[in-house]
């Protein structure tokens, strides 16, 4: 350790507590209700501040809740990055989406062949994976090109918006199709099936055969479609509207995927592509934003450049990092934090902690936290490792269940884990920077579109705690700046490691 402008430098630990937001104590604030002496101590310390993690501070539309993808990308990039949802909205507002040449070619071809355009995506306005309002632009484009038939394959949410609101969003779809004078809902299925990202192909298959072959329970109304299941909107079982005639994808049809975030739709997109190919159907596919699929699916809106972030800087100066998270959040501390670049830089080691069987987060709110913590403690003890980067998933993942009691347990388990990690940091004379990537568990209810207050497991627009724990007994550290955003994390980490912020970073070191 050496002194530099009042701050210490040396090896450290960057700890992302997923879904660790800040809000006043209330009876729906799981973090405040939980007994969390370690986290409370951190937040009360002098080297603690609150960082903006939502809206335009990170590159989202103003007022939009944060999410893991943009949160980790900005933590890594050290600058706000125009997120895909913002870029799509800009392309709608400036007319470039509607005038996109590739979209035009696809729609003209359908108009000539009388083929069907299939729109597939998450139907809510949660703005994490998709926004149902984007459909007005897509439907208008289809109508303008005289496409004759548009079918919507709606995925119900219940996670990024309050549960049991699926009916409201499906009704919104019918308003949009009436306005555009084209399109009808063909099929409905919950995101638990259609947006599995854990390789549970049996779940994905339900969505694939529903969309490709029209295989699902026949329903006559939105009400029947969403009430068939008793497990909420996430698990609405596959349903086909009897009113549409043939709901499946025929040879010569086209598919437009309208989720803008890739991670939870790519498995479905790949499996549907394979299934159509295997069954001899030639189908054009495009996606609203870029997907990380095996299948080559052209995107209508391109991603922002996220290079020049922490990973690139660490590689340039030759520092070693170990990245640790459980499967749910593994790409967060690797792919996202590295600027959506799948290549591991030199000096980078990845530790992915996997669990057994299908997770039940209410029954097992500890998830695989003990093993994640053990891996962090082990990596911290290795003197050749300059920076340990880890994500503790529980506060967010259990928070998403909307179950307050389970989320309180998750917060308490995380608190104990952070305690162990701080001890390990003390032993190895490391600093620790702990930060949330967006809010979640600090607000567990939300008013639904119909005005009722419902349990809510989704993200928030609240700021997140950002705390630096100096190594050893260093108590000379100055207080942190009061205004901060996630973009300040990478410059601060580099400063603490004894290096300058990268030239592409606009965030500023917090000390
Ligand atoms: O689970 C997810 O896909 C989203 C919420 O829809 O959460 P996160 O951004 O934390 O990954
Ligand atoms: Mn997250
Ligand atoms: Mn989340």
From TrEMBL:
Keyword Isomerase included in the entry's annotation: yes
InterPro entries per record: Alkaline_phosphatase_core_sf, BPG-indep_PGM_N, Metalloenzyme, PGAM_B_sf, Pgm_bpd_ind
Record-listed E.C. numbers: 5.4.2.12
Pathway named in the protein's UniProt entry: Carbohydrate degradation; glycolysis; pyruvate from D-glyceraldehyde 3-phosphate: step 3/5
Keywords: Glycolysis, Isomerase, Manganese, Metal-binding
EC class of the enzyme, as a word: isomerase
TM regions (residue ranges): none
Highest rank taxon of the organism: Bacteria
Segments for region (Disordered): 442-463
Similarity field: Belongs to the BPG-independent phosphoglycerate mutase family.
PANTHER family: 2,3-BISPHOSPHOGLYCERATE-INDEPENDENT PHOSPHOGLYCERATE MUTASE (PTHR31637)
Protein name listed in UniProt: 2,3-bisphosphoglycerate-independent phosphoglycerate mutase
């Amino acid at each position: 350790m050496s002194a530099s402008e009042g701050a210490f430098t040396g090896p450290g630990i960057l700890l992302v507590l997923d879904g660790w937001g800040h809000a006043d104590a209330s009876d729906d604030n799981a973090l405040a209700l939980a007994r969390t002496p370690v986290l409370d101590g951190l937040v009360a310390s002098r080297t603690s501040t609150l960082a903006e993690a939502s809206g335009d501070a990170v590159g989202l539309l103003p007022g939009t809740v944060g999410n893991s993808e943009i949160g980790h990308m900005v933590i890594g990039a050290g600058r706000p990055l125009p997120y895909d949802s913002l870029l799509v909205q800009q392309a709608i507002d400036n007319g470039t989406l509607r005038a996109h040449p590739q979209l035009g070619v696809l729609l003209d071809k359908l108009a000539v062949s009388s083929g069907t355009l299939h729109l597939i995506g998450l139907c809510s306005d949660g703005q994490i994976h998709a926004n149902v309002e984007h459909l007005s632009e897509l439907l208008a484009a289809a109508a303008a090109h005289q496409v004759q038939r548009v079918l919507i394959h709606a995925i119900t949410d219940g996670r990024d918006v309050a549960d049991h609101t699926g009916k409201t969003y499906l009704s919104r779809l019918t308003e949009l199709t009436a306005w555009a004078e084209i399109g009808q809902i063909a099929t409905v299925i919950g995101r638990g099936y259609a947006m599995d990202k854990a390789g549970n192909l049996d779940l994905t298959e339900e969505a694939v055969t529903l969309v490709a072959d029209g295989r699902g329970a026949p329903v006559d109304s939105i009400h029947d479609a969403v009430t068939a299941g008793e497990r909420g909107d996430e698990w609405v079982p596959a349903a086909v509207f009897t009113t549409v005639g043939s709901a499946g994808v025929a040879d010569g049809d086209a598919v437009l995927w309208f989720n803008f975030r890739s991670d939870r739709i790519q498995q479905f997109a790949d499996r549907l592509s394979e299934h159509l190919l295997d069954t001899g159907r030639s189908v054009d596919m495009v996606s609203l934003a870029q997907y990380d699929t095996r299948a080559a699916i052209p995107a209508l809106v391109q991603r922002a450049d996220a290079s020049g972030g922490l990973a690139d800087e660490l590689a340039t100066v030759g520092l070693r990092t170990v990245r640790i998270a459980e499967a749910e959040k593994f790409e967060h501390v690797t792919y996202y934090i590295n600027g959506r670049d799948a290549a591991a830089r030199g000096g980078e080691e990845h530790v992915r902690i996997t669990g057994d069987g299908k997770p039940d987060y209410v029954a097992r709110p500890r998830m695989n936290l003990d093993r994640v913590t053990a891996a962090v403690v082990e990596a911290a003890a290795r003197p050749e490792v300059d920076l340990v980067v880890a994500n503790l998933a529980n506060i967010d993942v259990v928070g998403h269940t909307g179950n307050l009691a389970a989320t309180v347990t998750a917060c308490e388990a995380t608190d104990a884990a952070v305690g162990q990690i701080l001890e390990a940091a003390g032993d190895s004379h490391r600093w620790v920077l702990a930060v949330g990537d967006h809010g979640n568990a600090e607000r567990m209810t939300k008013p639904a579109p119909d005005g009722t207050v419902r349990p809510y497991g989704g993200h928030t627009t609240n700021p997140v705690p950002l705390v630096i724990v100096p190594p050893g007994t260093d108590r000379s550290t100055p207080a942190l700046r009061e205004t901060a955003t996630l973009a300040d994390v990478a410059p601060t980490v580099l400063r603490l490691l004894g290096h300058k912020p990268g030239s592409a970073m606009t965030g500023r070191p917090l000390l």
